[in-house]
Amino acid sequence: xxxxxxxxxxxxxxxxxxxxxxxxxxxxxxxxxxxxxxxxxxxxxxxxxxxxxxxxxxxxxxxxxxxxxxxxxxxxxxxxxxxxxxxxxxxxxxxxxxxxxxxxxxxxxxxxxxxxxxxxxxxxxxxxxxxxxxxxxxxxxxxxxxxxxxxxxxxxxxxxxxxxxxxxxxxxxxxxxxxxxxxxxxxxxxxxxxxxxxxxxxxxxxxxxxxxxxxxxxxxxxxxxxxxxxxxxxxxxxxxxxxxxxxxxxxxxxxxxxxxxxxxxxxxxxxxxxxxxxxxxxxxxxxxxxxxxxxxxxxxxxxxxxxxxxxxxxxxxxxxxxxxxxxxxxxxxxxxxxxxxxxxxxxxxxxxxxxxxxxxxxxxxxxxxxxxxxxxxxxxxxxxxxxxxxxxxxxxxxxxxxxxxxxxxxxxxxxxxxxxxxxxxxxxxxxxxxxxxxxxxxxxxxxxxxxxxxxxxxxxxxxxxxxxxxxxxxxxxxxxxxxxxxxxxxxxxxxxxxxxxxxxxxxxxxxxxxxxxxxxxxxxxxxxxxxxxxxxxxxxxxxxxxxxxxxxxxxxxxxxxxxxxxxxxxxxxxxxxxxxxxxxxxxxxxxxxxxxxxxxxxxxxxxxxxxxxxxxxxxxxxxxxxxxxxxxxxxxxxxxxxxxxxxxxxxxxxxxxxxxxxxxxxxxxxxxxxxxxxxxxxxxxxxxxxxxxxxxxxxxxxxxxxxxxxxxxxxxxxxxxxxxxxxx
Length: 728
What we know:
The chain has five domains: 202 residues, Rossmann fold, CATH 3.40.50.300; 193 residues, 3-Layer(aba) Sandwich (Rossmann fold), CATH 3.40.50; 95 residues, Arc Repressor Mutant, subunit A; 86 residues, DNA polymerase, domain 1, CATH 1.10.150; 105 residues, Arc Repressor Mutant, subunit A. It contains 35 helices and 17 strands. A seven-stranded parallel β-sheet has the order 3-4-2-5-6-1-7, with helices on both faces. It has a six-stranded parallel β-sheet with strand order 8-13-12-9-11-10, with helices on both faces. Helix 14 links the parallel strand 12 and strand 13. The radius of gyration is 29 Å and the shape is globular. The N and C termini lie far apart (80 Å).
């Protein structure tokens, strides 16, 4: 038995107590450790919080030689090494070797390793492939190799890293020893990829349950009031540790600033920050000097903090593996863990756009992973059941009592005939196509692929055209959960019938479904930001706005938008300074229109003896934004708007959002120089007059009226001119 330390094989529990202070192992830990110490390749699939790291740390401490731990998280190696050093008087017992070390520190590491002092050596995959490190490791007696975050090997995993593909050839070059691969999230497809790429197809596999019963899962519609919702949620959970994930570094910085402006102890955390700042932020979070971390999804935090009480996804994640791992950082101590995700269909479209320009195969994988995430977000069945099914685990309960869908179940409808039709079409196309194709055949959509395979000639083509595509999506999702169909692993995504599915076609039985949640991109949560709304004051403010608008001969929305009035009727600002903190009210608007509104609010509070909850207001930070100032100055210099957007790292839609925020907050922008390059003066006047006469500044309404003649961008740009000139 290779590398086995015989004395410890019989009494691992004593060693567990000696090094880690635990009396018993958790789950499969002991079986995994015995398997590895017996010289067998080992594959470990253990969800976050299950105790993966102990599966290689304990055997490393008690076996002869040094264990090589390959980990992608350079920023966290120091923490892992520090934790191991706590179990021994010998600081050299654990080291890391990565690009952050200077020459003297690297020499010390090598001295300790060669002397036999070091039992665990953490190595980044990039460092492992360097020739000088390979030459050094050839001289070392290696007990085993541990490949942590092994999902990084697979293009189907949520954090694919090409350098992970080189691990097996390098291991072969350094010297043979058992391999243990560990990951918290992997579908059947990813597991196959990992074992194949690490050259360990016969590895003994240990798979723990993915169910985290203490975690509460909820998906909310993403509205324009999302920042307000997040602030309110955190205020309702004071001094609790939480993580908020955003897609972009820019949003991380902005949201962290909004939270701090609202007296929430929050810090940003992303790969673009310097190492020292990241380390300080991470340590502050672990030591409870920081309550909330706002981080990019792309940057793996891997923070081993047991009492994270909430994880919020500001943007929908790119894959369910990523989502599961990120939400898995909540409630690792078995206590409360709230997982809130904000979802809007337009975010999905944006993520698909990001994939353009990548290799076709990579785009295909990315789209399928995104589709799985969208399915999870939109489904109305138990979220726990959907998640566990995705990872190949069946959840027997219909209602978990700990997700939004189970706590607020939808009415179920009979769909026996529709399921039979869907299964018959899967059979008719020889079980050789994915969900979109099946739906196209169902609704009679003659796509290129449908025509190429002559599926438009099938008797069943268009047999489901009385129902929408989203309904058929719902049928197929719940057919997967019900075990009537499955997705092939090797050629991922092809729908296949199970025996139960074939039986159903022959003899249908009742099939009850609940229709998907509606997350239409126009959906606005009626409760968002108005939970404490003073309806009487709100109506009075609208009446005042209307009279001011009539006096100025401008549409009411030019003065203040509805959401600004809602905020006023919630937090009762009575001074110009307080009014400036209201979303959509900048200094200019506050000074120009604010006095009458503040007087009305003050009078209302006095007459109704209202205690103003102004210390609970949601403050915005747009007036302090350096980005805002830079944009205004550039427009003053007549910089081309497309060039300006690109220089700020924004796509043009995002850039127009910035301009909207600026002008709606009361700052004047003169963009006539740019408008004249894309529209003639008659066209500008045409759109301008539409907004002057319209009761709404809604772009969709404007597109309905003007869309045949103008693009959305052109209409938005003229609206910016309109608000700027008439309102500011």
